[in-house]
Amino acid sequence: MNFLNILNNLRLWLASLLRLEPAQPKQLYVREHLTFTDNQALNRIWYHGDPEELSQIYSQLGGAGFWSMSAKSRKIPKIHTGLPALIVDTLSQIVISDMLTIEISDSPAEQELLHKILEKNQFPELLEQSVSDTLIDGDGAFKITFHPEKSEFPALEFFSGNRVQYENQEIIFLTKYLKNSREFLLREIYGFGYVRYILTDASGIAVSLNSLGETQNLKDLIFDKKIRLAVPMKFRSSKRYKGRGQSIFDRKRGCFDALDESWSQYMGAVRKSQPKTYIPSALADYNPQTGEPMRPDPFEDNYIITGSNMAEDGKNQITSVQPEIQTECYLSAYMTALDLCLQGLISPSTLGIDVKKLDNAEAQREKEKATLYTRNRIITVLQKILPELFQAVIWTYYAEHELDFPEHLKISVPWGEYANPSFESQVETIGKAKSSRIMSNEAVVEELYGDTKPDDWKQAEIERLNQADGLILSDEEVF
Fold it and tell me: What are the distances in angstroms from CA 381 to CA 33, 154, 233, 257, 401?
């Protein structure tokens, strides 16, 4: 016991000697590598998919990535897979193709008017381009203008994020002009109840709108404070640039860089693995004029001239050697980089990439969930901003023609379901539910045909099924 007491006292004494002092705060400095405008420009270069443009911009940015390092050497094969543009274009097409119609409840006149305005502005193509621009730049905005001399309907335009600024509740559209080697910048300020125009020169000094023929007829507007003739759009807010949107390329550029590197290395290995043929000088072809050995072009440099065998019993013979490529290693690196590029954005099967050929239909549908989540995020934003845009468009038309504008318009934009199951699988599933008596004939017909058949056809089908099930008796059975 005495020994234990001594150890305990020793432990307490050592603990009393240990003094833990709190860490002192340090001043940490991190300099941002790119401004918001530079970041948008870099994302645009990735979307363009030109290897030469990527080499040029990364040679200026520096760094240790593939495009930065390969820009210093011309011997490294630089191949761009084009995956960023493929992701954006595919997502845009998926979203627009599922858009069903535009409905204005209890207002057939306004609905017909809206359809005419959208048809005049080629709205499906405009919407697809606006979705693509927003995915690339992070945000953008629709602008509504009216030119009576050109058309009786309002004009719709979309400005991508590199031509838009946001201040409080104002949306500022930027347009550059060049006249007599002088640069001008037009700032169109759209707020609730007003539109203002400011023209500045290259030094930022305001000049008269009459300085340019394109701006001399512009006049400030004041109207209803409930209306703003511009609607912003962004699918995700940026955590770095306050008040701006986030591009889907942000946080993925490193993965795209690694994908291009792995594919370029793979193709470089394929090029270097061409069969090499060793030809003794005695058997080589010579130029009859100069007497020098004939050489192939650099790309097809597939044989090497060696010295002749001068031994007494030596033989001069041609031998070929085929280098071995570590295909599995290159392919594994490529597939890993590809998975990182697509993570959280889109599934490989949506892009037509068959990673595993043994997947059944259910597994393929599970893979589509990544695409479904991204699509739902885009559609959620569109379902919110499109009714606001359409209402502003209709208001502009009525205001310019001095007509009474209905205050409350119930505008809805429904979308279809993505990755619908096949008709055969629906029949099998619904058939089991009907045989188990957990679905009525009305529910069966609606689930199977939905909006693909008219209501009178579906009603006749329901009656036929009810009669087949004995729920409705024929005239002969009644009497």
Answer: 30, 23, 8, 30, 31
Using DSSP's 3-state secondary structure scheme, residue 184 falls into strand
**Alpha helix locations (H) across 343-452?**
361-367, 369-400, 423-435, 441-449
Asked if residues 296 and 303 have their Cβ atoms less than 8 Å apart, the reply is yes
Q: Residue 317: how many CB atoms within 10 A of its CB?
A: 10
Tokens of 274: 């061409």
Instruction: From 433, 416, 417, 414, select the one nearest 425 (Cα to Cα).
Output: 433
- Closest by Cα among 210, 274, 44, 275 to 138: 44
Task: Kindly tell me the sign of the dihedral angle through the C-alpha atoms of 70, 74, 77, 78.
Answer: positive
Structure-token match 């099930």, residue found: 469
Strands 221-222, 206-207: pairing kind: unpaired
Which sequence spans correspond to the domains of the chain? 274-322, 423-478
To which residue do tokens 């058997």 refer? 283
Residues forming a β-bridge with 155: 145
What are the strands of the beta sheet with 230-233, ordered from one edge? Answer: 155-160, 140-145, 230-233
Distance CA 58, CA 8 (A): 65
3-state class of 186 per DSSP? strand
pLDDT in tens, the chain (479 residues): 566 777 777 777 766 666 666 778 888 888 888 889 999 999 999 999 999 999 999 989 888 889 988 877 767 778 999 999 999 999 999 999 888 788 888 788 888 999 999 999 999 999 999 999 999 999 999 999 988 888 889 999 999 999 999 998 899 999 999 988 889 999 999 999 999 999 999 888 999 999 898 898 889 999 888 889 999 999 999 988 988 999 999 989 999 999 999 999 888 888 777 666 666 665 566 666 766 666 655 555 565 666 565 555 556 666 666 667 787 888 889 999 998 999 889 988 888 887 665 455 555 566 678 888 999 999 999 999 999 999 999 999 988 888 887 777 888 888 876 665 666 667 777 878 778 778 888 888 887 777 667 778 888 888 888 888 776 545 454 34
Closest by CA to 344, choosing from 372, 363, 364, is 372
Find tokens 């008017």 and name the residue: 113
Angle of helix 369-400 relative to helix 123-137, nearest 10 degrees?
A: 120
Among candidate residues 388, 390, 386, the one with its CA nearest the CA of residue 154: 390
